[in-house]
Amino acid sequence: MASTIKVDKIEGSTGSTITVPTGQTLTVTDGIPVASGGTGLASFSAGDILYATGSTTLAKLAKGTAEQVLAMNTGATAPDWGSVDLTVLPTITVAKGGTNLTSFTAGDILYATGATTLAKLAKGAASEVIAMNSGATAPEWVTAGAGKTLQCLRADASAATQGNATTSGYGGTTIGDVGTAHISISITPSSTTSIIYAAVSGPAGGGDNGGWLHGIWFGATPGCIVVHNGYAHDAGGAVASASLIPGSTSTISVQWRSVGQWSGNTYTLGSLRGDSTSTNVPSNCKGTMTVWEIEP
Fold it and tell me: What architecture is the 149-294 domain classified under in CATH?
């Protein structure tokens, strides 16, 4: 039969140690209070956290759910499990990996003003571009520079034109709406102030050593006239360019025309040498023209 001793206090002599013999168990039925170095609690569950509710009292806080964090309750009297309240977090500085900014507006761009300082550049207006300011210290939105290509059109001549006799529009020293187009491109300007620019290369010259006239027309208006010596340009061809500010957004027919030739005292409108009948020019050398619309 096991022995049982019930006492309120076990105390050895001064400085001595009370020893529980090997094989024997000392059971403390009422627990060890905090004042005696215990917890005052008889059991725990996995995940429990102990916290003080007074100078000699401990309590258990059961474990929270996944991803909850431990924080003080609303009364600031005890710890509690809950979700992260981002509104109470401090603004994170750049040095800590943050921006040190608390809000943004759609379109804002961040840029550095120092080693640990970021600033916001508000979005620009339509079609503006980012450039450095005049002091080269920060970016800013500015109006885009002129010269942007708005359209680019290209066409090849299907054949060189010969022997045209169109003379309307020619009066003395004035060249009007004359000649025969053998390359034509229609372009509709997107702005009245755009620059319409045309560049062309094509066959030129004739069967005799005369002067040959070719040109670029914008509708009925000549943009340029070029003159070539006959034999010298049978194979090399002619190169020309011209530009126009349209003044409207109506469609313009840009044409590369053969205007004519003169040899001695004879002037013939519209003659052109440069197709398969020429012994000096291959049949695929008929000319190419490109037309651009350029932003002013």
Answer: Sandwich (2.60)
